[in-house]
Amino acid sequence: MSEPLAERMRPRKLDDYVGQEHIIGEGGVLRKMVLSGHISSFILWGPPGVGKTTLAEIIANMLNVPFFTLSAVTSGVKDVRDVIEKARNGRFFNSMSPILFIDEIHRFSKSQQDSLLGAVERGVITLIGATTENPSFEVIRPLLSRCQVYVLKPLDQNALTNILQRAINKDVELSNKNIKLEETAAILRYSGGDARKLLNILELVVDACDSDEIIITNKMVEERLQENPIAYDKDGEMHYDIISAFIKSIRGSDPDAALYWMARMIEGGEDPQFIARRLVISAAEDIGLANPNALLLANAAFDAVMKVGWPEGRIPLAEAAVYLATSPKSNSAYMAINTALEVVKQSGNLPVPLHLRNAPTALMSQLGYSDGYKYSHDYAGNFTEQQYLPDDLRNARFWHGQHSPAEETLYQRMLKCWGDRYKDTEKE
Hints:
This protein is an alpha/beta fold. Helices cover 49% and strands 7% of the residues. The protein folds into four domains: 20-151, Rossmann fold (3-Layer(aba) Sandwich); 157-227, Helicase, Ruva Protein, domain 3; 240-326, Zinc Finger, Delta Prime, domain 3; 351-427, no CATH class.
């Protein structure tokens, strides 16, 4: 029995790799690192089928180093330690570190991730992790600090079309047939930016035809997938376009659309924790100060899912989704922190004003630390005007209140306290 088409078409060289030009194209940071002959540990973060495993294998082949692979689904701490020991025993003094590739590293427990730390830090192994989940949430901070994170994007239509043409023209089996891509809209749509899914669909459609003369149309693809809708997606619907539609429906205050997309994710086998996590993010990013209770409810829904499990967990998730969708919206806090981060990047490490510094020692007091600080609670209304920002940013503004009733109250308080500094002309 021959290998699946997706496996037969797996690229073996970097030049054959399709997509991710931002990191492996000419001048891309990962390409430069590989061509230099030395790589540091990194994590590839992106949706399924964009080439995370393939890229790791290509890098190992180019560097000609031992390549170990573990799946977070089936491997435990003992397996990790066994691989580390093999890497340590098989390495010569001046040779490059073996590569340990861990697929679905987000599924590793804390103890499993802890077992990697020493080997990564000492260079016993070079870790390449692959994850479909945000490493900030799923990878422990000590391990994350020792790894670069490279974001892989869903493949665009040009990349997917390129993959289709290469499969038809170069695959050992498909190249013997006369296959014409008359229409591609359906096959590209169903693939969802996933190269593996794309090739699985192509193989499914071709295998359904008795003739070697095959003209692929949108109707043909739709009919075949209707007959066997899960043939190309064994892991359930992990479409990033669906989670995007879900979040945008909440942001756009459409509870019915939010429930529909949530139902799609549930039926597709989505991890309930992933849905709950996105609700927490949406509550902070899109509802924000317009209704601070939204974040509390989203967190409560997350906790409820963890406690009651599935399928009952769908009920608090639905409650949170409807509440967030129907809630007033504000992204002022989200915009404010983004602005502040940009200013920090541009301005560097500006000194803390002396009157805001702590003075636990006599020397610090002599140097003026804390001198002139005004304790707010000693004044009427628990407020007195003083400078809190660095001198170079004395009059900087990051937060701009928006028009929801709850946030307008906050804005008016700032006007009362700070006067013209907080006066937004667009509100006048």
